[in-house]
User: Fold these one by one.
Assistant:
Number 1:
Amino acid sequence: MSAPVFLAAPGALFALAPGDTYVLDGDEGRHAGVVQRRGAGERIDVVDGAGLRLETVVAAVDAGRLELTVTATRTEAPDGVELVLVQALAKGDRDELAIEAATEVGVDAVQPWQAERSVVVWRGDRAAKSRARWVTTVRAATKQARRASLPAVGQVIDGKGLAATVAEVHAAGGLTVVLHEDAELPLAGLDLPAAGGAGAPVRRVLIVVGPEGGISDREVAALTDAGAVLARLGPHVLRTSTAGPIAIALLSQRLGRWG
């Protein structure tokens, strides 16, 4: 069974090597020591959210403070392609369900999108609080999936902002896929951008998922004009909470991440 994962502050793990001691405290330490009651001799992993993983054994526990002995370090290097889920805001918790599952199956970043037909509106204090929930959801899903990389959560953008982002991605050699039920091209038939060698720029692949009411014709026109392509997942129409994670899983398989 894989070891439970706990998140460290960015940059906190770089200097550590096998045999060193790492102290897990703060919220993560309390969760490990008080909530989960981890004890001496148990194995846990600590990750920095950027691909670095410490394999450790608990040496001592004092309430919310754990002394860990590092047994190994591993770096899970990116493959040169960044999968980004552009998720339209949706009512209830369907958008949060989408980003949770997408994180578990391997998305690299999530981008909240205020679509024309989104019932939910992020504005003012609500925008900050709602994004904070997305960040918490992604963080929990990262730990659940035992990942070493923590997907970034962007600031909410509107249609104009999304079209500008699509144009930037297209100009840089990336790809934007708008999932649409009327598309003729299947997702499996897309030509994915090839990852470059060491030092080459990351190729972004955006997967755009609309809200419950779908993506408007005006939005489709704006996104395709900016360089996006339309694609379908299959013969059935999926919920906004389902389409993105399935697309991310299929693309992850094609990229060899699930080999």
Note: The chain is about 30% helix and 25% strand.
Number 2:
Amino acid sequence: MKKIGFIDYFLDEWHAEKYPAWIEQASKGRMGVSYAYGKADLEGKLSNREWCAKKGIELLASIEQVVEQSDYLIVLSPDHAQYHEELSRIALQSGKPTYIDKTFAPDRAAALRMLELADKHGTPMYSTSALRFAAEYAPVERQGIEAICSLGPGKFENYAIHQVEPIIALMGTEAKQVMWTGTAGAPSLLIGFSDGRQATINLYGWESPFSMALSYADGASQYVKIESNFFGAFIDQLIAFFESGVSPVPPAETIAIASILEAGERAARTPYEWIALP
């Protein structure tokens, strides 16, 4: 069995809780989470030691030990992207396939540094929102999309990725500007592309389903509501990545997504003004 190592800010969180069983089941036992490291113990959460004891995973004292003893690496911290660069640095120099959970980086500069570090050391690496792999997106016609209106739940800082990622996967990386059009309680961001195409993301509370309306240049339209097991599809892609070392996500898309999210945070401070993207 190939051994996977977790590297996390703290281990008692939803992704770390779910991934081990999903990976073992989807890989038919070819892979399993064997080792883990947590940077901190958080009040109100199981300590890293308690969490590992509960899950039957060996807690190691350092990131170096996890990297050394594992075949594949997963950097978690899904809701604290500000720690990703620190937590992934040794993994990205290891040459071992490394997945970094969403949101990849807090800003474009960090995204570029992490990608460059992985490239320098020949480390296969990628990051994604699981929503990218929702079955409903697969048959969507990419050619001719003129506008997208996307809807979903959550807060901008850790859930906007789930709408921006599919938009970039469908419309490409030529976004040139963003404008904040929402409120504090209902964030909304307009993304303008270099050829005049546009997309909006809208975060309307936890009861809002992930969904998307698409308009095409020829007048056609389409509505997509995400109801499939996108986490299952994501885990299948993760296993394939570990076995092949080939990322399913182009780095240019990862950089574009990080750029949009960073600019979106800035745009919230000056609503209804365009913020240029690099």
Note: The chain has a mean pLDDT of 97.
Number 3:
Amino acid sequence: MSETTNELMKAIGGLAKNPNFYLMVGPRHGGQRNHHRGQARLMRLLDKYDGLSVGEIAEILDVRPSSITGLVDRLEENDLVDRMPDAADKRITLIKLTKKGHQFLQNKKDEADDLSEEVFAGLSQEEQETLLNLLKRVSKNLDDVDFGDYISKMVNDSIGRHFRFDDGDIHINL
């Protein structure tokens, strides 16, 4: 590894360890502790496809319908979604975002936009585009790397510190 690639790995690792970076890109609670990731995911789905049944939501998100019912209950308690009967089939209840729900999502988007502008304020538009293209290429390289040998070596090195194998016997290193 060259000195430059070592420094790049350290810089990326430093970003990953920076608590502010984690707060920016890590799991978000929408600034409010009573909205967890599942609720945010459901709200974003309803923002895109408003008026879905619990079954449709469960299928799209690949979760049990009972899990969706609990999420909808909590969102409904906060006036972020409403349950409405389907006009075509009264046996089906559709879940729709309320005006407050749409506004909540817009506020979160605006906050994210403001934060990204602040984080990248020191870079010109051209530098931002260059950084974006470079990060996409690094991400693709990560997708293309076969980490199987690397992980095997790590596991074997770890096992070797704790166990010794000779003549078919396993000995524990204390």
Note: The longest helix spans residues 99-119.
